Amino acid sequence: MRFVKGHGTENDFVILPDLDGTLDLTPEAVARLCDRRAGIGADGVLRVVRTKAMYATSVNTALNTAVNTGAEETHGADTDAEWFMDYRNADGSVAEMCGNGIRVFARYLVEAGLAAPGEWDVATRAGLRRVALGASGDVTVDMGPPRLLGQGEASIAGEVFQGRRVSVGNPHLACAVDGPVTALDLSRAPGFDPAVFPDGVNVEFYRTVGERHVEMRVYERGSGETRSCGTGTVAVAAAAAAEAAAEGAEPSGPARSAPAEGGSVPVQGGAEWTVDVPGGRVTVILDAGTGFLRGPAVLVAEGETRPGWL
Ligand SMILES: N[C@@H](CCC[C@H](N)C(=O)O)C(=O)O
Question: What residues correspond to the site Could be important to modulate the pK values of the two catalytic cysteine residues (predicted)?
């Protein structure tokens, strides 16, 4: 099986080109690929499959039906998006969206000659997401509007943290903390109420370190602590903006500021947030109707698994 390895701010992925959707990718196979000692090692798998093929076979249809049950948006094989990002967490579970993954996915498509630099839609289980990228450099993604869903809480070793529940296609709980995020023990999963998060949740802890500038760490559903989480950075920016609005430091309506730099993207303006993660830095732009994520996407290796290994 051919694979490519890549990362976005050190959130790393095994990319599996399966253009015609012939691969029966089981949760066990995903977990073995992502194993950092006995496998290739990654936070998740990005299967690259034609959207039409995704809906053509019974195994793929079953996967989509299962996930779309709880999704906010669904789409069918009639979409114009040629490529579907089939994202899996390191434990083999399926997730609706991956913000770092979709940038790496887009970079792979361009470098493999399967798509041209420019702007186009990628199909995901959370719906279509528009990406914009050049022949090299950062990738920008229209992540859709982050949706604030109310309060929630998480705990670490008995200490309770209040947070905001945010949907970025997948579920997040963004908790503001006072001290440096490096001080938190994320060696184990934070506790949360399964009645509030029946499908599990990605938990972010963030601290404001400047104007529209936050640092964060994340414990991801299905992958554990990762060095970055793109959907998580959008959730944190949305939560921090809501916090600032509540304190009167930000307008509570659609965010407005100088147009963001950077070019070939459909960003008309919006409030630009800098989000520092252990693996680097990304930019989140909160526009009136959506949220954009901009950051690096790097391919580092490619190869082939040994026959019979999986
Ligand atoms: N790392 C991703 C998020 C991957 C999915 C997440 N673990 C979930 O289960 O929802 C990102 O960059 O957004």
Answer: 172, 220
